[in-house]
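Duplicate of #3305? Posting structure anyway:
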C-alpha cells in the first residue's frame, strides 16, 4: 500500500489555548480555557518497517513510526501534491546528493 518516497498526510490532534491558522475542526473544551483541534502534517515515507508499520520523515528530519492501517494516515491526492508541494520534505533530492 505504501512505498518509500510516497507523500502522505497525517492528521494530528492537538490541544492549545491558541489554535494556529491551519487548525481544523476546532472545538472548545468544557470549561473554555483550551481548544481541541486537528492539524494536517505533510510527511514522506522514509522506510517500511516490520509488522505493518511505516517510518515517516518530516521536513525537519524527524522520524515517526505509524501503523499502516491508522485512519489518520492517508496518501496525498494529486491536487494536494501540487497545492502543498512546499510543505512536503524533499528526501529524494537529498538521497541523490548523499549517494553521489
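Output from current build:
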Amino acid at each position: 500500500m505504501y512505498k518509500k518516497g510516497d507523500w502522505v498526510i497525517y492528521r494530528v490532534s492537538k490541544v492549545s489555548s491558541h489554535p494556529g491558522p491551519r487548525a481544523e475542526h476546532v472545538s472548545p473544551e468544557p470549561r473554555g480555557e483550551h481548544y481541541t483541534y486537528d492539524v494536517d502534517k505533510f510527511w514522506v515515507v522514509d522506510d517500511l518497517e516490520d509488522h505493518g508499520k511505516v517510518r515517516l520523515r518530516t521536513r525537519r528530519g524527524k522520524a515517526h513510526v505509524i501503523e499502516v492501517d491508522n485512519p489518520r494516515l492517508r496518501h496525498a491526492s494529486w491536487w494536494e501534491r501540487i497545492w502543498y508541494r512546499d510543505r512536503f520534505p524533499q528526501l529524494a533530492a537529498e538521497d541523490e546528493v548523499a549517494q553521489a
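Confirmed duplicate; merging threads. The two ends are 30 Å apart (CA to CA). The chain is about 15% helix and 45% strand.
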